[in-house]
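Predicting holo structure, flavin mononucleotide bound.
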Amino acid sequence: MGEPDLPDFYNDLDRSLRAAWSLLACGVKDRKAPAHTPVLATNGDSGPRVRTVVLRACDPETRRLRFHTDRRSHKVAEIAADPAGAVHVYDPKQKVQLRLDCQLSVHIGDELAQEAWAATRDFSRVCYQVMQGPGEAVSDPREVPFSADDSKDGWDHFAVISALVTRIEWLYLAAHGHRRAEFLWQEGDWHGRWLVP
Ligand SMILES: Cc1cc2nc3c(=O)[nH]c(=O)nc-3n(C[C@H](O)[C@H](O)[C@H](O)COP(=O)(O)O)c2cc1C
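Done. Tokens:
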């Protein structure tokens, strides 16, 4: 009786870390991957706030993830008040959960926002042309006004959220025994250790 088919990262911290970043990177390219739509958590006035967002970019070298949003959305004010955030992904096919601690920053009108805006398509720009801010009350959902002015293409409302990852918690579910690890960014490198699942 040999070992059941286990992934190469099963008992290997470095490979688990690489697999975590690879899962995130796939989420940028593959619209069907669960990592394409992670949950982003911020701290609101009265407690934690969570919402689904599209993962637009992921760079393991700089430890940064990128999301796009409307600068008038509640999350932007929450990040300004408290930059601590978290990101959650569960990929049921891979049987991997990732919990990331992040420092969040908002970019409005700067070079990063300009680059990101240049890469957006017209249909994605439409949602930034809504005249009232996201989350404002409306009396009739059929009458949410969008800008009729062609020069207002949504750029004024566009914001990039950049997440600098400071801790990664990895959980791999396996019948043979789960594997849980944490990776902390300290003194310029990732330091991993196994945890009881
Ligand atoms: C599949 C999916 C993808 C979403 N992608 C984004 C996104 O990329 N950016 C965004 O601001 N909101 C996105 N939303 C909407 C947010 O979940 C949320 O409702 C909205 O941003 C308001 O959040 P806030 O009031 O906490 O700022 C998405 C929702 C879903 C269901």
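The longest strand covers residues 158-172.
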